Amino acid sequence: MKITRALAATATLTALLVGTGVAGAAADVTWESSPGPHTFSVDVTPVSYMVDSSGDAALRVEHIVDENGRALLCAQFDRPSPSGTQLRPLGRATPQLAYLANQLEHPELNPDLAGLDAMQQYYVLQFVAHMYDSPHFADFTDVQDGQRVADPHGLIPRITAVKARADAASNGDFFEGHKISVSEPVPASALDAEGFWLSDPVTVSVQAGSAQVTVKPTWNEAATAAGTTLVDAATGAPLEAVTDGAQVRLKTSADKLAGRAGRVGVTLDASFDGGTAKIGYLYGGDESVQQIVGYDEITYNEHLSTDISTAYTPVLGSLSGTKEGPAGERLAGVEFTVKDAGGTALTTVTTASDGTFTVPDVPWGTWFIHETKTPQGYLPLSQPVEVTIDGAHRRIDLPTITNDKAPVAKGLSTINTGRPPSDNALNPALVIAAGVLLGGGVGGGAWCVGRRVTQAMGH
């Protein structure tokens, strides 16, 4: 039967999990099993490896086992053992007692117990357990005379070392340690040649223990609107699930963002199914017998997550080109104004002595290059040049822009009046010529303007 943390029976388990540093406060836990009652008994005569001042055994302990023969520890030195008594789980033990109970499973793996026989190993662990409830065990003093006991087997240094490890124990020590993390939660991003923002590679680490784990991405609102995807850092292939050690990138189209600055993020949701925890419990009945410290292997499912986010800067491009006359001569001093579709000017630039011009920091979008000043003797462009800055076209190199020369008035034959010109008499031919220049020409003049602008190339 599945037991969730909403049930009172497992409230202490949930309290144990939250804040351990293993699952974290945001963990979503479902327990698949729970501890049950056990029957305990004493299977050997009390033993001691300490002696008092008269040479008699001191600070003796009993060897407690459950109905399956599993060794456990008692938590109350001043009460009778619960031999033959069924005890129910009362709640979680302290991390210190839970640590000692867990050491009973494989005491040979504890470096402080190595080289001891099985009963000596048990004695050290039970002795340390009693150090938390008995001043005599804590001070290594005899119960009868209060004098420090002798240690013929050299166990006190081992007891002291095990006690230090128990003191440092925390609740998280008894869980598998499920974890999901990333090498860099806020990676930088750069715009690639195809107009996509790509974050720096991020390595995902997943610790699953015995659990089965599935990791899937969940996007925030900004990332969803921008169509952000999670891709393999090496191949660029989209990823729907993530495994331990995967290297990933966040990929976003700059055009979906309309070239604007922004931040997108993804939550990597990890579901761990079938993990195990060795929870330390106190078992007890009434107040007439000792409480027992044991552990039960509890199966649980868990949900953890970690976040990755990256920021994008505005997309800025540049425009550059060259201005020439019809014979290929470079034209200096030509003025261009860059405007948006609504006619709002972005900036104005003037060609240099070699006829070149550059417009830096042009935002994403479509722009129109208007010729607003033309050298004398040349015709201005009749229509603006249209260019588009987007994710894949950020450096626009325009083809050469050519201006045709303005037409000039044709020369006229001199009209012979029969009189020589005088200093004060205006030559009628010059008057007519002036009329051509100022009045549009005699009989109408033909003006021609030409423009050669090919499609701009983007980079």
UniProtKB/TrEMBL annotation:
The chain crosses the membrane at residues 429-449. Residues 318-393 form the SpaA-like prealbumin fold domain. One of its GO terms (biological process) is carbohydrate metabolic process. It comes from the Bacteria. Keywords: Membrane, Signal, Transmembrane, Transmembrane helix. Residues 1-25 form the signal peptide. This is Hypothetical outer membrane protein. It comes from Propionibacterium freudenreichii subsp. freudenreichii.
